[in-house]
Specification:
alpha/beta, TIM Barrel, four-stranded mixed sheet, 10 helices, 13 strands, globular
Length: 317
């Protein structure tokens, strides 16, 4: 039996929505919280005497969940079209280090939504073997995409219903905990962000096959029509969920938003995506910024304002 007592001077109380700014102790038995109270009261508990006492210097809070990461990324602004040229072994090592950093920052569950070839699976294998300590890892492995589509260089390209079904089976065999689908283009240079990637029959084949194996599906969607196809196919999570028309302009589709809300489809809005890069640029003296960096900041700020307005409408749906 393992009994531990964690003590600190500050704790986030998520039940009452408050911050406790005083000495607090948490009694844990076999990874289950038994009691949370003042150190005096916890010290009188029958399990206290033989427990391991751990003093914490930071804030105590529940484990965080990061539902959208790409662990193999370097986090330095390197675009995917360049990243993919890196050797798979180095990507896996880098991904393992990133998983460790997540755990150290308080993330206890992490969902990786796309890695090259077998690199993502190797990170989880290292964690399962105890080689590295990581959050609980939910790995999609290689995203299913079309020829030239977003993230096609990760290695799982499919055309037609039969190949889509085969891709799901291959990913399940390799160890995917969920299936990631690129329903539209994205940052990949050869992809098209204004049109859907898969047709409805292909998308439905992927979703139905994944659900047969009782695993979750998530679709990258940066235009409205791709999002509509993903929704009609029964995808479990819409990623990004950008209401962008074929002309490339933000245009909220209330009917689609209402339908998704009615079906309680999960939406991973990724609103923070790219903000850290902008914050890094804004921390520079303006005289140090290049013209392209200034334009990058201006474009992001404009898109951010438009996106938050659209997502307020989604929240109201």
């Amino acid at each position: 039996m393992s009994v531990k007592v964690f003590s600190g001077n500050r704790m986030i109380d998520t039940v009452n929505g408050s911050v406790i700014e005083k000495k607090i102790s948490i009694l844990v038995e076999n990874e289950i919280i038994v009691a949370i109270d003042s150190p005096d009261k916890i010290s009188s508990h029958p399990l206290f005497e033989n427990s391991e006492k751990i003093e914490l210097s930071g804030t105590i809070l529940p484990g965080l969940v990061d539902c959208h990461v790409h662990l193999i990324g370097f986090g330095d602004g390197t675009p995917g079209d360049v990243l993919v040229k890196t050797d798979d072994n180095l990507l896996a090592i880098n991904g393992a280090q990133n998983a460790i950093k997540h755990l150290d920052s308080g993330v206890t569950t992490l969902r990786d939504l796309g890695a090259k070839n077998m690199s993502g699976y190797m990170i989880k294998e290292a964690s399962n073997r105890g080689i590295i300590q990581t959050p609980d890892l939910i790995m999609s492995g290689r995203p299913i995409t079309i020829i030239g589509g977003h993230l096609n260089w990760f290695g799982e390209v499919a055309t037609g219903v039969d190949e889509c079904i085969a891709s799901v089976r291959r990913l399940v065999r390799d160890g995917s905990d969920m299936i990631k689908i690129t329903a539209t283009g994205g940052s990949t240079g050869t992809s098209n962000t204004r049109v859907p990637s898969f047709n409805l029959n292909e998308m439905k084949a992927i979703v139905d096959e994944a659900h047969k194996f009782q695993i979750h599906t998530a679709a990258h969607c940066v235009n409205t029509e791709g999002m509509r196809i993903a929704f009609e196919a029964g995808v479990d999570t819409i990623i990004h969920g950008r209401f962008v028309n074929t002309e490339g302009n933000l245009e909220f589709d209330k009917r689609l938003a209402d339908e998704m809300a009615e079906k309680e489809v999960l939406i991973n809005a990724t609103l923070h995506q790219g903000r850290d890069r902008i914050w890094q640029l804004q921390s520079k003296d303006e005289s140090e910024l290049t013209d392209s960096e200034k334009e990058e900041i201006a474009v992001f700020n404009n898109n951010w304002e438009e996106a938050t307005n659209v997502w307020q409408k989604v929240m109201d749906a």
